[in-house]
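> Could you send the PMS1 1 prediction when you get a chance?

Sure thing. Input:
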Amino acid sequence: MEFKIILKKKNVNLKCMSLLCSRYLGEKNYRFLMDLDNSYELSTDKCTITDERIVKNGFNVVIEFIDNSENADINITGVALHISKYGAEELKQLLELMQLKQENNLYSCRPLKVIHYLKSETVRHCKTIGQPKTKEDIYKLFNQWFKNDKFFSNNTCIHDKPVFESIHIINENHKY
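Output:
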């Protein structure tokens, strides 16, 4: 789906970086962040977090080593453009999600603000394309729905409403 990379592409660099410390993030989150995939620049003694769950959720995080590695400064240098008041609290929430989830993929590691943004963008997109016009369009939608196990197994749409309703349950033992 096109929304998987939307936050990475629509990222704004911050003029005033957000500086975080281990006390704000919590020691467990701080250590977890320090162990994530990163690219290190020897000349500047900085590393940029490259973990896709951080980057594709709209964050650009740079760790700067001042005196020693124990006192590293964590800077949020970029955030998702279209999400209002998106920053340190959501990064903290994301780090906690990444540690809790058994499936450590992008889909299961989304802060609440990102989920709401993606849902609203999906609804906006659906409104622009309109309702299905023919039987074939409806069959295509059903086929797409059934191919995606995550949606089909939960039977919920983006609004957490059921997609299919049971009309009648047939009792096989009942004689008609």
